[in-house]
Design a protein that fits this description.
Elements lengths: L2 H18 L8 H14 L1 H9 L4 H10 L2 E2 L2 H19 L3 H20 L2 E2 L4
Parallel strand pairs: 1-2
């Protein structure tokens, strides 16, 4: 695949990850990993920026080195997820959609709970 297409995909993934940091049902992590993969194959400069200077650098470095989350990130992620899902569940009129959101919430929390935590000094 040509480098410029990977570069475009990488920046789209970064934009989606930034949106995912604020929106409840759009996950940020898969888009960050996709951006890192695209930049690693298309632009060493942007790959370094993403891993060492971006707002997401700490999380990506922990994942790349240890396949883990940095200390404190798991708690913050769980709090934001529960808060955003709670607002969505309260505002929805349909019982079926509420149950669906509760099932998605349970699966997401189980997935995040299973990710190990690593200290930044390690």
């Amino acid at each position: 695949m040509p480098a410029f297409i990977l570069l475009i995909f990488g920046w789209v993934a970064v934009a989606l990850a930034a949106l995912g940091a604020a929106l409840p049902l759009l996950p940020a992590t898969p888009f960050l990993l996709l951006a890192a993969w695209c930049f690693a194959r298309s632009s060493p400069r942007f790959h370094r920026w993403l891993l060492y200077r971006s707002w997401f650098a700490r999380y990506l470095q922990a994942w790349q080195r240890h396949r883990a989350m940095p200390k404190g990130a798991k708690f913050r992620a769980i709090c934001v997820i529960v808060l955003s899902f709670s607002v969505s569940i309260i505002l929805l009129p349909s019982v079926w959609l509420r149950l669906l959101l509760l099932m998605v919430l349970a699966a997401l929390l189980l997935f995040i709970w299973r990710i190990p935590v690593v200290d930044e000094e390690q």
